[in-house]
Every structure is written in structure tokens, then in C-alpha cells.
Give the backbone structure.
Amino acid sequence: MCTVCVLQNDMAAAVAPLKSLHCDSESLVTFISRTRRPFSIYWLDYQGNCVKYCQLDYAQQFNIRTYETHPWIFRDSETGDNLVTADGSEVYMPKKWNGGNADHVIIGIPG
């Protein structure tokens, strides 16, 4: 089960000045693990702090309702290394929900 916890400010500083802006446009997202290493999913809150939402293992997925201006990042749970989306982005910015299916975001190792 996923738990919410706030990380130290040093991780937030590593991705500054990104932060959530507002909650006007809802988004549905499914994050999907394609790495054999466990990793954590973090939301960047309104102050730019990293908020851990969950840890995924290989082939697991996590569904969430979020908002268009809310950035998400992914870190290897053991090393803290950055992970990326399928298009190579270290930060995922949700798209406005169009009333259909959730946006599927595949997470993996860079390169």
C-alpha cells in the first residue's frame, strides 16, 4: 500500500524550481514500472517539496487522480538515481483529462 511522506529539502532542491501551481484541470494517470529495480514516485507540492506517494516493483502500476500543473518525478529506491518516462523525461507533467482513459506513463532506466 502506498503511503505519503515528505522527503528532506535536498531532494526538492535538486529539481527546483519545479512545483505544483494550481488544481484547475484534473488528470488521470497510470504509472507503470518497466525497470527491475524498485523505485519511488514523488509529487512536487506547491512549495516544490518532494512528497513520496508510493514505491513500485517490476511490472507494478499506480493509478492516481492528479492535476495538469502537478509535476511528478521518479527515483531508484536504493540509489536515489533519476528514472525517466518512455520519452526520456525526468519530470512528468500530466495532461488535462479528456474524459477517456487514464494516461499511461511507463517508467524506466535512462538510456
User: Anything to note?
Assistant: Residues 1-10 have pLDDT under 50 and may be disordered. DSSP finds one helix and nine strands in the chain. The two ends are 30 Å apart (CA to CA). Helices lie at 9-15.
